Amino acid sequence: MDNGDRPDRHTEPYEHDGSAAASDPAVADTLAYPISPDYVKSWTPVRALCELIANALDEDRDAKVGWANGILTITDDGPGIPEEGMILGHSTKTMQQIGQFGEGKKLACLVLARSPEIGAVRCETVGYGFTPTVERRRLLEGLIPSLSGQGAEVLVYHLRANDRTRGTAFTVACAQELAEEAIGRFRALSEPGYHPPTNPGTCVLTDTPGRVWIGGVLVSTMPGLLGSYDLPLDDKGLQNRDRTVIEAGALRDAVRAILAASDDQAVVDRFATHVLAGGKLREPEQFFPAVTAARPRAAWRAWARAHLPANAFYAGTRQEEAVLDLQDMDYTPVTASGLPGYQEQTLMALLGVEVARVRQQRHYERNHDKTTWVPDRDLTTAERDLLSAARALVDRVIGPFALDRVRVYGNSEESPCADGFYTPGTGDVAVHRDVLADRHRTLSVLFHEAAHRVRHRGGGRFIPSTDYSDRSRGFEHMLTEFGGLLLGLLADLADGGALPEPVAPPTPGNRRRVRLTAADDPAVPVSRRELAHLLTDRLPHALTAGGFTDEHDMVTSTAVRPVYWSLLTRPRPAGFRRQQGVSTAWDYDKVALLAEAVGVHPPVAWLASNLCEGPLHGRRRDQWGQPGRWAKKVRDLITRACADLEAIGGAYAAHVPALRALADGTTPAPTGDDSWQAPARTLITLERQRLHLDGDSQSH
């Protein structure tokens, strides 16, 4: 290359192939880049130093960076800078490295060479070294006309050969302040043991808030944020060639994803304390609607339990009367006045704080019974005998699952115009007292309500269904089934047969029957029944250990919807489906939170509740229990449960092959047969032994 006004320097280009210039340390050469010194005007010397440090860390996570006696030294133990590394735009960086565009080192050398704040810059790498300068040159030996006639200022490397066989070392003469500012932008240099975060990143609460790192490299600052954020290296795509985050929407989404996925109590405390004190949030940190995962929601609920009063509420718009009423009853208002209305509403849902009107309504609902029940002791002897005989007959004809608890009422706002009603939430059947004056009416009402219950909850050969209400096709079908069953029994009696013997004899003396719990219902799969007993037997210890006032308080602390706890402790038959809402406890994370609150291993709880659904899920009803692989969703969840069992080890891990054989369809799983649920039942037995529940009087 032409050396312009410096004819004393070599004119041949520097070679890397063993030429004289490369092999003789005394021989020097120059390499000129046709890059104007005005390129990347926005780059500061600190930005350039950061690029050199980033390159060193990409090659060697233990690279040494330090300043002493006016010199910043950056040393790594990498393979050195090859010929391709001198080409602008060439890069072999992966997404797990800081670099990206193949321009950092070249542009850093340009910026440092032109900056009056920087002294001599030297690089020593494998086989050669160079010093970057900015000089006026004529390109291609002056063959190209020059506008000024004097050539143009370009970046020039003064090259020299050396004997180095490993690593690269940069030395830069600069002020201590510049060096410390550049070093301070790298978390890997200031925090021992630092590792770049995985998706979605981490929220950093130490030091000055408002910083944004990518892979531990400071790229931007945003005043007014409550925290700082370290994005994963995969988010390098958010940067331009100046290494700054420039797309506001992408940064907002990245910050919200970090906060929404965080279950760190320190992060929750920072934001909850701020907004409940009336503080505002900048747009990137308005993340409350994005908190949907189970464990982050549980973390917010745990914070509320520790920091908010039990009788807390928040005031919505136009609820002044409800607010005054609650305050008169010693309820405590909670506000987040710095947030927009919809943000406040979402925050309060995370914290488990109800709006004033709902809180007031729930208070009155808990203290007001809409049905006037008639105690068993107030019934006449004739009424008690008739009710007992009628329900015993229904149990013998239809089955022990047909009726659970039967209650008598005198007046009801729930169903004021009927002789009886069925309560889906409890499985109870209610009979009006006037009905007990007539045997025919009593049998008719019990027969009718039993059809509702069996269609809803199933039992025996009957599959549960959500189509159980009056004037529905499903209920009509159930009445038809019952009619056929009764006619069959009449035919048997005409041929000299007899009614089936009752499963359990009537209770002597006081014939009032206590409600049959779902954990004892023969229509419920045995693994679900045993899980329900495990959880309820363990519950008293969990309440004491966790400092909970009652069962509801414990479930609320997990931020999991109460329906999940109900499905675990008051189980339904396999195949039960609601028309709306949750029918099975499929969500592994939510089941895990509830299980951990009680002290039970999460995979045991999930398998005991859901293994019976394996041959049913994702199939038509006429294909339930048929051979073949289970649905992919079930197989994936069972794989996760098996991985957790293997992590527990011991006798728990021994059941993994049997569980996988069921999911793969190797082991048959017919409906109506609970024997194939043996792996789940054995795991429950192991839990009872571990938790010392086998000696309890409630052990099952």
TrEMBL record:
Domain of life: Bacteria
Bias kind Basic and acidic residues: ranges: 1-18
Spans annotated as Disordered: 1-25
InterPro entries reported in the protein's UniProt record: HATPase_C_sf
Protein name per UniProt: Uncharacterized protein
